[in-house]
TrEMBL record:
It comes from the Bacteria. Keywords: DNA-binding. Residues 10-78 form the HTH merR-type domain. GO terms for molecular function: DNA binding. CDD domains: HTH_MlrA-like_sg2 (cd04765). SMART domains: HTH_MERR. This is DNA-binding transcriptional MerR regulator. PANTHER family: BLL5018 PROTEIN, REDOX-CYCLING DRUG-SENSING TRANSCRIPTIONAL ACTIVATOR SOXR.
Length: 176
């Protein structure tokens, strides 16, 4: 029996639709506060159609466009849920209209538009990794004696990677 398009979906139904494991959806709930499934007795999750559309957009950005979680978080913060939903549905007309509306709103408020970083540009995946690792090997210059050679941005990247690894370890420990 087929459900109505407006019906709520269980986590297993959403996971099957998006071809993702259920634990990934639970993890995304911790990273994206915009994902708020209804929870019933026993903690059972029920996703609204808008939640499913948002998850499709997030999945599309992460898996098909090569965005990082941090990059998708920035997109959601700067452009809103409707923007990411439109990207997930492939509605580029809506994406363009929402982008123009956001730019007009910023101009009306006389806000300086945020500088776009590589992970915020729709359709442009991050550059593939090379032998350069977090700024090391970017030039032939050796770091000065006594300096760590790790910049502020590199330190933040390392900290984020460490946090993600610790979260993976915690999840693996739960399975054991």
């Amino acid at each position: 029996m087929e459900k109505s398009p407006d019906a709520f979906r269980t986590i297993s139904e959403v996971a099957d639709d998006l071809d993702l494991p259920q634990h990934v959806l639970r993890f995304w709930e911790t990273r994206f506060p915009q994902i708020k499934p209804m929870k019933r007795g026993g903690g059972r999750r029920y996703y609204r159609p808008e939640d499913v559309d948002l998850l499709k957009g997030i999945r599309h950005l992460l898996y098909d466009h090569g965005y990082t979680i941090k990059g998708v978080q920035k997109l959601l913060k700067s452009n809103g849920n409707k923007f990411v939903i439109a990207i997930g549905n492939g509605d580029m007309d809506a994406v363009e209209a929402l982008s123009q509306a956001a730019a007009a709103e910023q101009a009306a408020a006389k806000i300086q538009p945020p500088s776009l970083e590589e992970d915020q540009i729709v359709g442009k995946a991050k550059a593939p990794s090379t032998r350069r690792f977090f700024g090391f090997g970017a030039s032939n210059q050796e770091p000065e004696m006594g300096s760590t050679g790790v910049g502020k941005e590199d330190r933040a990247l390392l900290q984020e990677a460490l946090y993600d690894l610790l979260e993976c370890k915690r999840l693996l420990d739960q399975v054991r």
